[in-house]
Amino acid sequence: MTHISVTVDGTAYEDEVEPRLLLVHYLRDRLGLTGTPIGCDTSNCGACTVELDGVSVKSCTVLAVQADGSEVTTVQGLAPDGEWTPLQRAFHERHALQCGYCTPGMLMAARDLLRENPHPSPEEVRRALEGNLCRCTGYQNIVRAVLSAAEESDGSGATGERSAASAQEVTA
Amino acid sequence: MIPPAFDYVRPAGVEEAVRALADAGEDAKVLAGGQSLLPLLRLRLAFPELVVDVGRIPELRGVREDGDTLVIGALTTHHDVVHDPLVRRHAGLLAQATEAVADPAVRHRGTLGGSLAHADPAGDLPAVALALDAELVAQGPGGRRAIPAREFFTDYLQTTLAPDELLVEIRVPKRDGWGFRYEKFARVAQSWAMVGVAALVRRDDGHIAEARVGLTNMGATPLRATAAEEALAGAGDAGAVARAAESAAEGTRPSRDASASPEYRAHLARVLTKRAVLAAAGMG
């Protein structure tokens, strides 16, 4: 067993873990943070995407011991006060989900994109989400939601209505 | 899926890591970003007794200049390679090809050294290392040695690295003024290359003075398209490039799998070589 200290969604944990324990199993089975789903178990689908020290990672492809000393943010840490982020609101308003299974990973991957590139083009959104699969094939509204969130965070004073309109135009 | 049990050490420095590898004999695996090793462990295709996690060794990370050479720490992530100003300036081919590796989350963890040491012929970077004539520097109990990329890859997932050697840095000759293009053909987004072509072109007076072409997934190891390279020397227009690219698959032994036959891969190598060289030469 290996000792780890890890902060997840703002809470510090100390644990003894087997070195082979995957981060996603640690989050779900040990900490009970089941908001992060396991989709494919093969590093393909991105459903288990979380942030590790501020960047997106596939938590099925990280060992819990590799997260020792690090800070993890899961989808459950996005709205600690219950107040949704613009990205979460945009997913809700643009209906960027069907079954919802890929949604946590989509949110975490999109957050990563908007941090590096606050004003992405539709093509850049699609490229940034290439590691996240939606088995419902609901990509159109996911892309619209990310573009809409980018506009809303823009600070240019765009209203929700205006951003909604231009997000529609993008794929019209 | 759950990996098999293994012992785990996280050395603080290169010498400590090499000692751990030497003590473990043949049954140790090096863990860097884990984006190749963890999938193998989960599928139980690898059963190391010891995993040596080098992921916290700071001196293995980063890019610096050494005269006409870029020195890239083996632990430098794909994300950092893509965004590094020195790499973009002096080894644009590497930056471009690295951006084609997997997806953003994988690029945050995966490392240049890990991709090369894993030696998957379907990986994008081994062929790029060949085209760039990179040198791979390994450290073992007896010190360091530099291995030319053309000698590094020996077979499918096999390299000349000894079990007690750690890949510590990649030395890339600067290619200022050379045109470049990495063409990757894949079935779906973020998948492995069915075939990839890494082209570097030096032009002189409107002609191709020298072309270097690396092939991804055209055999058990990454390969150079030497026949095409020779035929490309002196090419002055798109027609000459197209004719030279016809020999891109010579000497290759591409595999057959669910997505492509060897014949189709040979076709792709010819087409992608033409595209990559035309783009690299600015003749597109």
From TrEMBL, chain A:
Which Pfam families does the entry link to? Fer2, Fer2_2
Chain segments carrying region Disordered: 151-172
Q: Where are the transmembrane segments?
A: none
Domain 2Fe-2S ferredoxin-type per the UniProt entry, residue ranges: 2-78
Tagged with keyword Cytoplasm:
no
Molecular function GO labels: 2 iron, 2 sulfur cluster binding; metal ion binding; oxidoreductase activity
Q: Which SUPFAM superfamilies match?
A: 2Fe-2S ferredoxin-like, CO dehydrogenase ISP C-domain like
Q: Which PANTHER family match?
A: OXIDOREDUCTASE WITH IRON-SULFUR SUBUNIT
Which named protein is this? Carbon-monoxide dehydrogenase small subunit
- Organism, by scientific name, is Streptomyces naganishii JCM 4654
Organism lineage string: Bacteria, Bacillati, Actinomycetota, Actinomycetes, Kitasatosporales
Q: Which gene holds the coding sequence for this protein?
A: coxS
UniProtKB/TrEMBL annotation, chain B:
Please verify whether the record's keywords include Iron.
Answer: no
Where the record annotates domain FAD-binding PCMH-type, the positions are 1-177
Q: Which InterPro entries match?
A: CO_DH_flav_C (IPR005107), CO_DH_flav_C_dom_sf (IPR036683), Diverse_Substr_Oxidored (IPR051312), FAD-bd_PCMH (IPR016166), FAD-bd_PCMH-like_sf (IPR036318), FAD-bd_PCMH_sub1 (IPR016167), FAD-bd_PCMH_sub2 (IPR016169), Mopterin_DH_FAD-bd (IPR002346)
Q: Which GO terms describe its molecular function?
A: FAD binding; oxidoreductase activity
Q: Keywords in UniProt for this one?
A: FAD, Flavoprotein, Oxidoreductase
Which Pfam families does UniProt cross-reference here? CO_deh_flav_C, FAD_binding_5
PANTHER family registered for this protein in UniProt: XANTHINE DEHYDROGENASE SUBUNIT C-RELATED
Please give the name of this protein.
Answer: Carbon-monoxide dehydrogenase medium subunit
Q: Which organism encodes this protein?
A: Streptomyces naganishii JCM 4654
Give the source lineage, highest ranks first.
Bacteria, Bacillati, Actinomycetota, Actinomycetes, Kitasatosporales
